[in-house]
Amino acid sequence: MEQKIIRISASLHCEYKELVSRFPKLTLSTATELLIKKALKRGEIEDSKDTAYKAVKELDQTFRKWMRQQEKTHLSKISEELLALAHELQDTATKTDMEKVGNMQIFIIEKALSNLATFLVNDYEKTKSELSELKSQIKKQSNIIEEKLSKKIF
């Protein structure tokens, strides 16, 4: 059986679908023959002299070309989106960065608290010794005053 490949327009394809839906008992080959006769009368189809292999190869090449174009389009969109996202995330810190900063702040606070505690302990001891010294001076002054007062009274 000889096979031929024909290419039909979108309008002819719609007409074919309408024909098949209008007459459901029509077989595909009969519907195709009727449509081909109509299209040939109107001059819408031309007989293809190419072999089936060559026609399929052309379709395959067309499809592959279309797929490459689609891939390029999608890849360029993805790369644009990635660039925009990278620009937005440029000033954003990662979780590990935040942990490092947090740990550094904790270390600084602990060191400051340790220094403050050391200062307060040392200052407390110094203040305690100064108070003790003042207390002893007050006692001495108090004794001197009492002595002078007691001498005046007697």
Task: Describe the secondary structure blueprint for this structure.
Layout (H helix, E strand, L loop, with lengths): L9 H13 L5 H15 L9 H38 L5 H59 L1
Record keyword descriptors for this entry.
81% helix; 3 domains; 154 residues; coiled coil; mainly alpha; single chain
Could you please describe the fold and organization of this structure?
The structure is a single chain. By secondary structure, the protein is an all-alpha fold. It folds into three domains: 1-49, no CATH class; 51-92; 94-154. The protein is built from four helices and no strands. It is rod-shaped.
User: What structural class is derived from the secondary structure elements?
Assistant: mainly alpha
Indicate the overall shape: rod-shaped
Beta-sheet strand percentage?
under 5%
Number of strands: 0
SSE string, helices as H and strands as E: HHHH
Q: Spans with pLDDT under 50 lasting ≥5 residues?
A: none
> Helix fraction?
over 70%
Domain tally: 3
- Largest sheet: number of strands, sense, barrel closure: none
Number of helices: 4
Q: Could you tell me the mean pLDDT?
A: 84
Distance between termini?
Answer: 155 Å
Radius of gyration: 51 Å
How would you briefly describe this protein structure?
With 154 residues, the chain is mainly alpha-helical. It has helices at residues 10-22, 28-42, 52-89, 95-153.
